[in-house]
Write a structure and sequence with these properties.
Blueprint (H helix, E strand, L loop, with lengths): L6 H16 L6 E2 H8 L13 H13 L3 E4 L8 E4 L13 H13 L4 H7 L9 H13 L6 E3 L11 E3 L4 E4 L7 E4 L5 H27 L5
Antiparallel strand pairs: 1-3, 2-3, 4-5, 6-7
Helix pairs in contact: 1-2, 1-4, 5-6
Length: 221
């Protein structure tokens, strides 16, 4: 994967994707509308306070990367912006509805559990159940043109592990045992990539086994 984005860049892209899906009648977005979307206090973590000059600089950088484009027409003097990040005729990156909702929410809110993603991404994509969220995460983590997400070590007191996106360079990797390592999605060796995928598959297998045991257990109530 050759895409590496800053926090401001992920916020701009995700805001454009979010508004395209939730308020298509107002999309593409003007610079003012995009700035307001980036600085929303709801559905954002962290909450940012970007000024228009910073958003414009970010848009310009994304335009050079061919991830955002300007759209004008019908005599309007106001420039409006649309993403070219994925699912467009201009790029190779394609996501399903569920994958796009997950990636957008990870851009907007940071690492989340499958349960949190199901709740937060429901406004962007339809999920039949938590299993569909987990299947989409597994696909994003194992795609040959990725990986695009990874599972973090389970935190004390949490029932589920959180997942994070891999579009922002170096990320912390906590192996099954041993000290914390740091590797980048772009700079990781093939061995590192395989280790991450094997750890993910093993964790998913454990979760599936636990679910199967609960399903096989007779109802005691």
């Amino acid at each position: 994967m050759d895409i590496e984005l800053s926090l401001n860049e992920t916020r701009v892209i995700a805001s454009l994707i979010e508004k395209e899906l939730t308020t298509p009648e107002q999309y593409p977005l003007s610079l003012n509308a995009l700035t307001n979307a980036c600085n929303q206090k709801s559905n954002r973590d962290p909450v940012l306070t970007l000024d228009q000059a910073t958003v414009q600089q970010t848009v310009d950088a994304l335009t050079k990367k061919r991830l955002v484009s300007e759209k004008t027409g019908f005599g309007s003097r106001v420039s409006k912006y649309q993403h070219r990040f994925c699912n467009t005729e201009f790029g190779l990156l394609k996501f399903t509805e569920q994958e796009l909702g997950i990636v957008c929410e990870l851009f907007l809110r940071g690492p989340q559990t499958p349960g949190e993603l199901r709740s937060h991404a429901a406004r962007l994509a339809k999920f039949a159940d938590i299993q569909q969220v987990e299947e989409s995460l597994a696909q994003l983590a194992t795609r040959p043109d990725g990986p695009f997400v990874m599972m973090l070590a389970r935190e004390p007191g949490r029932r589920e592990s959180r997942y994070m996106h891999l579009f922002s360079g170096a990320v912390p990797i906590v192996p099954v045992s041993g000290p914390v390592k740091v590797a980048g999605a772009r700079g990781a060796t093939e061995s590192d990539r395989l280790d991450r995928l094997e750890a993910l598959v093993a964790a998913l297998r454990d979760d599936i086994d636990a679910l199967q045991r609960r399903l096989d257990r007779p109802d005691e109530h």
